[in-house]
Amino acid sequence: MIPAPSPDPGQATAAGAECVHCGARISGSGRFCCSGCAAAYELVNRLGLARYYDSRAAAVVPPRTDPETAPQDLTPYIRQEADGSLSLAAVVEGVRCAACLWLIESALAAQDDVISGRLAVSTGRLSLKWRGSRERGGALLALVCRLGYRVQPCDPARFAMAGDGEERRLLRAMAVAGFAAANIMLLSVAVWSGSAGGEMGNATRDLLHWVSALIALPAVAYAGQPFFASAFAALRAGRSNMDVPISVGIVLATGMSVLATLHSDVHAYFDSAATLLFLLLIGRYLERRARGRARSAAATLLAIDVAPVTRVTEAGMTARVMPASLAIGDEILVAAGERIGADGAIVSGSSTVDRSLIDGETMPAPVSAGTAVNAGMTNIAAPLRIRVTATGTGTYLGEIVRLMEAAEHGRSGYTVLADRVARFYAPAGHLLALITFVSWLALGRGWQASLASAVAVLIITCPCALGLAVPAVQVIAAGRLMRRGILLKTATALERLAAVDTVAFDKTGTLTLGHPTLIGPVDNDALELASALAAASRHPLSRALRARRPDVPVAEGVAEHPGEGLSWNGPYGEVRLGSRHFCAVPGEEHDDHLELWLTRPDAAPLRFHFADELRPDAGAVVRTLRRAGKRVLMLSGDRSAAVQHVADNIGIAEWSARLTPVDKTRRLALQAAAGRRVLMVGDGLNDAPALAAASVSMSPSSGSDISQNAADIVFRGDSLTPVTETLAVARHSRMLVHENLIFAVAYNAVAVPLAMAGCVTPLIAAVAMSSSSLIVILNALRLRLLPIEARL
Amino acid sequence: MTALLYLIPAALFLGLLGLAAFAWALRSGQYDDLDGAAARILFDDPAIPPQRNQRRAR
After folding, report:
1. Total domain count for chain B?
2. Residue A506 annotated among the catalytic residues of the structure
3. Which chain A residue's Cα is nearest to B16?
4. Domain spans of chain A?
5. How far, rounded to the nearest angstrom, does the alpha carbon of residue A373 sit from its chain's CA centroid?
6. How far apart are CA A198 and CA A192, in angstroms?
7. CA of B38, closest CA in chain A: separation in Å?
8. H or E stretch at A475
9. Which residue of B4, B22, B49 is in closest CB contact with A175?
10. Coil, strand, or helix at residue A682?
11. Considering the domain boundaries, does residue B18 fall inside one?
12. In a domain, B17, yes or no
């Protein structure tokens, strides 16, 4: 990403300007939207890294600073290295561009005791090494937190996933195949030109063939493994896939060439085998990379799961332990601001908990003794003492993970188009080769020459164009979407998207922006007072108030009444900010309004009205989808009234409210059973199983990392247009794939008869193969020309 | 044609040298984060050693 110059941060002080650090609009005077951003800005300057603000991309909004992220006890994650240094792995959320990477790495490098701090942008993984005490680990992560990124320490062993090694292996195989292809081609050109001119002696030709064999045999044995393994697995399961004809073609071409070399024949096919392998490995590697951030959903979820908890021992003391060591019946303490580590019932204390991770509910719910709570909820207001009823995989959170894994497993049964084509294409190719061999043998041409023609048929039909047709289109489509802030994670997502006829949206955070905003005109003095009180609370509505007036100093001695509101004894009497009931305002509580009341000794009660605002283009996107003949659904875990309000606003006729994650998955299963292909768009953890269960899924990058992992596609920004754009690109991709396949078939229709007639020399085979691959890639490149507002 | 006897091994040796260099780069993790590498090339200064902080601060 190329950093674009941004206005000098020092000048952005006018009222109505943007926060210098995070770019959020601020209405009052001052330069920052909140104290967290101010602190982050100061920290960046103190470290001498102010260039961050000049070099970050103008369009990129850095993460909002959350000053409340408390450093945890990191001792369980720290590892002692052989050289005496300490190391720690963590997942950093919110890294968006080069400037973020630079800022984090430079800030860590500026610390005296840090040996290395390296952040992988594609996975968000930070590897940190330092010298000195274990306690410094927490301080170093806290430094990254203070810069405005969310940091979650994790177990490095859990990070060593299968995906990592696979990509490296493909790359190494590609290098070996490339080396072999280039060097053999060098020798082959000599053979071709020599035999054309008739100047090359038989001995020289044989020598060159032997050298080629020497390069090709180990190279094919090594670099062909990805294909051989896959083909073998498919055959053993009684199926056929793309890799079966590829493997057969490569093995036969190589084996045949060895025979030819042994008999000092004129033609050997080593170059075709190696080039074919090289081209196919390029396609395979690019396909693999197009999946982008291949971070496993389970790894991140487990990272959340392993935050230590505070257990109350028999003697009444407290100890920090890992949730895995908790037993049912244990009691744990959860401080305000901490995540609850296990399912349980509250023994004592009353507070409000943020349930959004579990069920997508916008508003925190009040809890008191006896209420059941789940792992993954965040305690907001006051300390709680909880008796554990379930731990680890037994928790509700664990249940969600299991649902997600089950759903993902179910989807892996999808067969990609290329494999479906290969299913009849491969036997046809093999049959033709067999016919060629038998016919020539019957015509009395000798078994060697007959076999040579049969292998030529196999090489020609070897689905190079087929093998490249799909990946080439996918890679170009992925690159095109990437530039628009849309990340394609699954290779087959585009194919599945092109077949979509129903689109299901989650509400909170997907159709809406996911956080309440103060709306309507308000009295300035009242707002100032309310903001002074709200600064003491972490409630989302308080934060929304603060966001409007961030520059008011915090009132001293504000008391928080969990689930009710805030009170403060000011110079003129008691001021209350909270629910209608709490402020003793007569009238009914309305479920469908997000409101706060402010009562002052000398004034009438005043109401602040909040709304979770719709994404600006939500209505337009829904209309476009309906015009394109797609069915649009809304599945939400929120209250009926709130869901209906949104549905009416943007014109969605079919909606359901109060759905649990299981309900959502079931709804999608019903749609699937009715033969519909559903695109699920959702952001919360509660959507994660549904995202995995839908035939294809998208998640905004503002969503939880879990749902981003479960989704096939992640998109960036406040706009929903990526949904329609991705659908348009998917449709065009399918068209191009079909064109490519038709071309591949046409190419075979011409080339195969020639090969069967025995007129194909290795030179012709190599030229035909490469040119057909090139044409397929060039055709795929047309996707770049697709206008942004392509018709859906 | 006898030149081939040492030219071919020489060519293969050079090719293998390149292959080995690539394998080394791969093993040392230089291909693990290609997106990051694309970004890092834009940093026009080395990671800041602590002693030089003050001079760099504006």
Report:
1. 1
2. yes
3. A179
4. 1-156, 161-290, 303-394, 477-513+615-732, 514-614
5. 29
6. 10
7. 8
8. helix A464-483
9. B22
10. coil
11. yes
12. yes
| Domain A514-614 class, CATH top level | alpha beta
Q: Using an 8 Å CB-CB cutoff, list chain A residues near B8.
A: 187, 211
- Fold exhibited by the domain A1-156: Alpha-Beta Plaits (3.30.70)
In angstroms, rounded to a whole number, what is the distance separating the alpha carbons of residues A489 and A223?
25
CA–CA gap between residue A281 and residue A304 (Å, rounded): 37
B25 falls within a domain: yes
ipTM over 0.85: no
For B23, which residue in chain A has the nearest alpha carbon? A172
Query: Residue A539: what residue type?
Result: H
Query: Number of residue pairs across A and B with CB atoms under 8 Å?
Result: 84
Residue B23: the pLDDT is 92
pLDDT digits (tens, 9 = 90+) for A164-193: 677 788 889 999 999 999 999 888 888 888
Residues of A in contact with B6 (CB under 8 A): none
Would you give the distance in Å from CA B27 to the centre of its chain? 11
**Is the pLDDT reported for residue B58 higher than 50?**
no
CB contact under 8 Å between B34 and A289, yes or no, is yes
Q: Count the Cβ atoms, other than its own, within 10 Å of residue A298.
A: 17
Better-scored residue on pLDDT, A169 or A402: A169
Q: Which residues of A touch B (CB under 8 A)?
A: 1-3, 45-50, 55, 97-98, 101-102, 105-106, 109-112, 119-123, 164, 167-168, 171-172, 175-176, 179, 182-183, 186-187, 201, 204, 207, 211, 215, 289
Chain A nearest C-alpha distance from B27 (Å): 8
The C-alpha atoms of residue A736 and residue A473 are separated, in whole angstroms, by 7
Q: Which CATH class is domain A477-513+615-732?
A: alpha beta
In a domain, B2, yes or no: no
Q: Percent helix, strand, coil in chain A (nearest 5)?
A: 50, 15, 35
Which chain B residues touch A55 with a CB distance below 8 Å? 42
The pLDDT confidence band at residue A269, using thresholds 50, 70 and 90, is confident
Give the N- to C-terminal CA distance of chain A in Å, as an integer. Answer: 28
Q: From residue A663, how far is each of A111, A525, A566, A636 by CA, in Å?
A: 49, 46, 36, 10
What is the structure's pLDDT at A411? Answer: 52
B window 1-58, beta carbon within 8 A of A: 1, 4, 8, 11-12, 15-16, 18-19, 22-23, 26, 31-36, 39-40, 42-43, 47-50, 53-54, 56-58
Do the chains contact at B1 and A1, CB–CB below 8 Å? Answer: no
pLDDT for residue A59 is more than 70: no
- What does each C-alpha distance from A386 to A101, A369, A432 come to in angstroms? 40, 9, 72
* Residues contacting residue A418 through CB under 8 Å, at least 6 positions apart: A242, A466, A467, A469, A470
**A573-578 vs A309-312, strand pairing mode:** unpaired
Judged by phi (left if over 0) then psi (alpha if -120 to 50, else beta), residue B40 lies in alpha
Which residue has tokens 């549905």? A647
Which strand (E) or helix (H) includes residue A715? strand A713-715
* Strand runs labelled E in A1-110: 79-80, 86-93
Which residue range(s) make up the domain with B17?
Answer: 11-42
CATH 2.70.150.10, domain A303-394, yes or no: yes
pTM of model > 0.90: no
Quick: pLDDT tens for B6-51: 888 999 999 999 999 999 998 887 877 776 777 777 666 655 444 4
